[in-house]
Amino acid sequence: MVMGPGRPVAPTQGVLSPLSIDDVRIGPGFWGHRQQLNGEVILDHCRGWMERLGWVRNFRAASGQLAAERCGREFSDADVYKLVEAMCWEVARTGRRDLDETITELGEVFAGAQEADGYLNTRFGHQGVTARYRDLEWGHELYCAGHLIQAGVARLRTGEGTDDVLASVARRVADHVSREFGADGRQTVDGHPEIETALVELYRATGEDRYLEQARLFVERRGRPALAEIELGRAYFQDDVPVRAAAALRGHAVRALYLAAGTVDVAVETGDRELLEIVADQWRHTIATRTYLTGGMGSRHEGEAFGEDYQLPPDRAYAETCAGVASVMLAWRLLLATGEARYADVIERTLFNVVATSVALDGRAFFYTNPLQVRVPPPVPDPTAESPRAQAGLRAPWFTVACCPPNVARLLASLSAYAATTTRSGIQLHQFVSGQVQASLADAGSVRLGVETDYPRSGRVTVRVDESPRAPWRLEVRVPAWATPSVYWISRSGDIASTQNEGGGTATPGYVTVERVWRVGDELHIELPVHPRWTYPDPRIDAVRGTVAVERGPLVYCAESPTDRLDLLSVDDSAEPVDLDRDPELYGAVTVGVTAHDLPAPADADWAYRAGPPSADARPRRTATLIPYYLWGNRGPAGMRVWLPVRPSLMAPAP
Ligand SMILES: [Zn+2]
Q1: pLDDT digits over 137-174, tens only?
Q2: Closest by alpha carbon to 189, among 123, 255, 275?
Q3: Which residues sit opposite 595 in a β-bridge?
Q4: Rounded CA separation 452/243 (Å)
Q5: What's the N-to-C CA distance of the chain in angstroms?
Q6: Would you list the DSSP string of 506-547?
Q7: Residue 495 Cα, ligand 1 centroid: separation in angstroms?
Q8: Ligand 1 mean position to 112 CA, how many Å?
Q9: Which of 166, 332, 350, 631 could form a disulfide with 295 if both were Cys (CB 3.0 to 4.6 A apart)?
Q10: 73 by DSSP, 3-state: which?
Q11: What's the 636 CA to ligand 1 centre distance in angstroms?
């Protein structure tokens, strides 16, 4: 048995090696605060709802009269598993004994519901309900198994040992799946991918080849086709063409992203460079044409799906929170495999503008969809009831389909493992978080770093060397694509005075790399330009042609109005957006001012169309205040928009 370290993704090969939760400690700051909120509020909040709605009781009842009693949707088991996975990472992060006991307790509950042959599902295969594997299109049985396996892997990598009850339940499920769906078994796949990446990770954690082989079979079987035709079409569950024949991610966004993540895992572990390159091409196509400015993915409510290229309506954006989490998972795997900064850029964009957006500031409500425009202030959800998933409303405490909250919880609890990596002779800092990083470099020795920053409020990041071997090694810090010009400099032994500065200069997007014999107390400073900037959409995104957005550092900004509609707002992009004050009502976030005009509403409103162009006469200029998109909706019902129309008369004339 190969015990892996405490990290969610542990490839055996690749350009970069991930660090574990023990190696990277996130201190106070944007993400430190959210990790704390996760540990203190979100985990309990999720558990409370799952207990209250009977999703945990389903396991306890599985051996009895379950058919009559079972609560929740067919995939609710998976949400309990995701929460347990989050608890495993949280125990690794904090050493909390109470959570450790809860994990064992729930592991025993799962074990009690597991059948003799390893099958485990509270919805299928019991007396009086649908038999096993009769509805692979919609049943989510292997999807649930995948999340159980991921929880088991998290336990294997962070818990006491291999005889842990949760880990052994997960292995028995994986063994069952391998027997049932192996080369000589059922020649099909699950409608919702997830089992693929889970099996590869279990292979990585245990060294058992059969799990990798089973994941490979699932990836290769898909699209031949393996599942029945459905009303939404087979592209919905990526069964329209084989993985190797697809040009872009398509269909249900979360399914497509989980499948792509599992495909990267299979490609990396089997050394299939062609397959890796195919997924990287699909990713590039998807980022270039099917991704929102926020990093959100999925532009159709129907099928919760990717749209056509450039079909990115802001108000009908689906951009499910889970798709954001899954996009981080995929980009992280591609980053580890290739070392290319663009993947870390997308991770950052998605973390700040999808994952952080989902969670209410008190940790007790969540967005399921993340539209970029909400026209009318939505009603406040009932705090005592589950909400339907797809309403473009305010954050809701819980959902009938509650995939998103525990998905956010497991990512937040394990977030430190996504911040930095190593090579044989270097450390790469991909995300800017205050805290400590330690690593042992094969060709140099032990390194410890302290990172100080209040990013994204400011763009100053200081990396201090707290321990260093005598051999030279490389310190690499990501410079985001938007961050031009950035400057960096090095100071010796804590003396920031210019006399001691050496090296440095302008840093171009990618990684700034300094290789040297580092001494304890040496510091690398980098200044990223986080001042607000205009961002224009590709004109082929016709839903937002003629508009402009504001970004500041990694953050997308938006206009929010609790009282006025924002549909007549237009901005003057000839003046640069400027930083306004930190808003105490907005938890100290920096607000941004833009020059705005309000167009007059046409007088006769009985028909929305007219012969001539609308009046561009606007009321006097004013400064409109924009707030970070991740904060919208925290002060009560409000309308919101990211893309701001440019005042027609101020648009550039045709040549
Ligand atoms: Zn979700």
Answers
A1: 999 999 999 999 999 999 999 976 667 999 999 999 99
A2: 255
A3: 623
A4: 43
A5: 69
A6: EE-SEEEEEEE---TT-EEEEE---SEEEE---TT-GGGTTE
A7: 48
A8: 28
A9: 350
A10: coil
A11: 23
